[in-house]
Amino acid sequence: MADMGVSSAELVEGRGGEGRKLPQYIAALAAGSMLGWSSPVIYKIKEANNTDYDFTVNNAQGDWIASIINLGAAAVCFPIGLVMDAIGRKKTMLCLVLPFTVGWLLITFGSSVGMLIAGRFITGIAGGAFCVTAPAYTSEIAQDSIRGTLGSYFQLMITIGILFAYVVGSYTTVFVFNILCTCIPIVFGIVFFFMPESPNYLVVNNRNDEAKEALIKLRGRNYDVDSELNILKQKAEEARNNPVAFSSAITKKTAIKALIICYSLMLFQQLSGINAVIFNTSTIFASAGATIAPAIATIIIGVIQVIATFTSSLVVDKLGRRILLLLSALVMCVCSTALGVFFFLQDTHGKDSSIVQSIGWLPLVALSLFIVAFSLGFGPIPWMMAGELCLIDIKAFVGSTAGTFNWLLSFTVTSTFNSLNESIGAGQVFWLFAGIMLIGFVFIFFVVPETKGKSVDEIQLMLGAEPRQKNEEEKI
């Protein structure tokens, strides 16, 4: 991070690119605190002696308060894509500060369950919109060589936001925790105000002088921005001279393949069982005979997520997206299988049987490795790929609809896991997740291309576009 005492201008123009990262850090922290809020708070406010609110919350109401953010996020993902194309990436994210703040104020000063649900729904809208606009903005301001690293920082800060919620929410009052969460989007708005608009967006909208200034702020005054600006102008000019209707753009072979990959990665991400594993952390620790308090167990998992996601940010532009996705799918498949075996044996032979006692270490190891594998690959990369595989004329649509699909899947998995667990058994549920990840491994191996360090044109060629030179030769 920037040194203390650095001026705002230096921070924006950045030492080593930090100016590009700081607003993204805070945006992701806001989204992460929203996601992690329910774990410590719902547990507290459902207790009989709860004094944090002047009303009681039963189990069913607690489930709605916890999960309603998924529906809020799903509702906004599609329209936010249209908004950020209309007014720009920067203005869109600045506008999101208002609903985020309003939502947290409703949660902080809520006088009924209805106000809590409304506040969570509104923060879900703002958080879901951030998850679409921030990766799109990042992919457009980053250089090809560090695009993956910069993109993965968003997921890293979401995990830090979740860990922040676990720690602060567990050891402060609900009121203090809510006030801190309210401050985060406000701080983001102040910092992000000094960031430039996406140069890509500015060029597309014939604001070339502003685009040059934006590139200077992002790259530094010693960087030759003219060559990069000329490339952006050339692509924008080609798009204007060869206008393509949206229906044609979205039905091109490259666009269809990008759509299939983006939606499939979102599907495998949510059906990996990540939420089922996270929600059962305390149960798994208890099953292994660990005498760790639920709050401590949850914090441990949060720390593991942060470390693994940080590791991913260091290696994603070295090892590549594809290898990390393959590794992630394989390890998660093995870990889900192991968890399924443990719970199946526990249901069949009982908790105190010798065979279950002999593998009491298995859930802890499998859980930790599962979290590490998810955080290395399937956590950050599906969101990143949605920004990398698509051309700008369909990027907003694909990113927003993929986000909607992701949040709806998250809500479905979250709301049906307990009933599925009761109907077919915990072991069988984890085997189901393992089977889905095996299919995901095969899909990635045969379909997903490697985008590490590749330009937009190179990625389109990998998706099946015809080489530009070939087209020019045919015209001659």
Describe the protein's topology.
Elements: H1 8-13, H2 18-36, H3 38-45, H4 59-87, H5 89-95, H6 97-108, H7 113-141, H8 147-171, H9 174-192, H10 199-204, H11 208-219, H12 225-241, H13 246-250, H14 253-270, H15 274-279, H16 281-287, H17 294-315, H18 321-349, H19 354-358, H20 362-378, H21 381-388, H22 392-424, H23 426-447, H24 456-462, H25 468-475
Helix pairs in contact: 2-7, 2-8, 2-9, 3-4, 4-5, 4-7, 4-22, 5-7, 6-7, 6-9, 7-8, 7-21, 7-22, 8-17, 11-12, 14-21, 14-22, 14-23, 17-20, 18-20, 18-23, 22-23
Structure description:
- By secondary structure, this protein is mostly helical.
- The chain has 2 domains: 7-195, Up-down Bundle (Growth Hormone, Chain: A); 246-476, Up-down Bundle (Growth Hormone, Chain: A), CATH 1.20.1250.20.
- 79% of the residues lie in helices and 0% in strands.
- It is built from 25 helices and no strands.
- Helix 11 runs antiparallel to helix 12.
- Mean pLDDT is 80; it is low at 1-19 and 470-476.
